[in-house]
Design brief:
194 residues; mainly alpha; Tetracycline Repressor, domain 2; elongated
Length: 194
């Protein structure tokens, strides 16, 4: 119903009609439409994260992580999940319950990205100054923003992803520097970070 009618078209009546069930069952099983949406959000996100867990585990570079992000975005867009996310983000503005659930669902993605970043940045000069948990949230937020932005400016969103790819290349180049250059870079990064 979120995909077809948006958050304003979601009600116990429309959900029950789509499911071919009595609308009283929504309240019997979930207590409210918001609780039903929360349960659906949790279940669907856990399934999507699980489907991508092996892909995240196989990532060996930041550029590969970006490629997985692009693949994930294309799949989410194809399935209509980008519009569902937009609707849940909008609903979260009026419903604390939907906001909590949407944030919890997004954290499932953040956890996966954080694991990858910890692994990829281990030993990198960047790791010494990077707040990896914060960076994981920034990556997630950037992809959410890009997913929504793409709907109104596809070329601009593509350019933004290309810019992120350029940053990944820069970090990879930094990681390939020799030991003397890496020490100098580490020292400079520490001074700048203070």
């Amino acid at each position: 119903m979120l995909r077809e009618q948006g958050i304003t078209g979601v009600s116990a009546r429309t959900i029950a009609a789509a499911a071919g069930a009595n609308q009283a069952l929504v309240f019997y099983h979930f207590g409210s439409v918001d609780e039903l949406l929360s349960a659906a959000c949790r279940e669907a996100t856990a399934a999507r994260v699980g489907a991508y867990a092996q892909r995240f585990d196989a990532v060996t570079s930041l550029r590969e992580l970006l490629a997985v992000g692009r693949e994930l975005h294309a799949e989410e867009l194809r399935q209509g999940n980008v519009s569902v996310l937009a609707q849940l983000l909008a609903a979260g503005q009026r419903s604390e319950r939907i906001a909590e659930t949407t944030a919890a669902a997004l954290r499932l993605w953040v956890v996966e990205i954080e694991k990858v970043l910890h692994r990829l940045l281990a030993g990198s000069p960047v790791a010494e100054i990077a707040d990896v948990p914060g960076l994981s949230r920034a990556v997630s937020a950037a992809f959410i923003g890009l997913e929504l932005y793409e709907g109104v400016d596809e070329a601009g969103a593509a350019r933004a992803v290309e810019a992120i790819d350029q940053l990944a290349v820069l970090i990879e180049v930094m990681d390939e520097l020799g030991p003397i250059a890496r020490r100098a870079l580490r020292a400079r990064l520490k001074r700048v970070a203070r």
